[in-house]
Input
Amino acid sequence: RLCVEAHGRARLARLPAGTMQILGAEKAFFNHLKTGAPSPKHGHIFMHPWISRSPKWVRGKIARTVAAKASIAARCDAYGGEVWGQEAVDAVAARVEVIRTENSKPRQR
Output
């Protein structure tokens, strides 16, 4: 879905991680710019189980981490860099678990 939304792998590789994070949430993003509504934290990337199965209060942090690593992986894929192996995926999964454990309870207001 991210490749389709970005109109190809090459264009996806050129996008910054923050833009990749909100691909698919353009309507909410422009509503944020126009009316001052809260900014969207995730778009199509929400479909990933690491994000969709997480508690609501940590989804933005996990989406930012996953988007950053997906951006690096897209650049490696498009420009012929080092292939991402299972070790890299496991490292991202470990980072997601750290975020979940550090933020196991919602922040007090």
Summary: Residues 2-102 form a domain with the Serum Albumin; Chain A, Domain 1 fold (CATH 1.10.246.90). Residues 29 and 39 are 6 Å apart (CA to CA). The longest helix spans residues 59-79. Helices lie at 2-6, 9-14, 17-21, 26-35, 49-52, 59-79, 86-102.
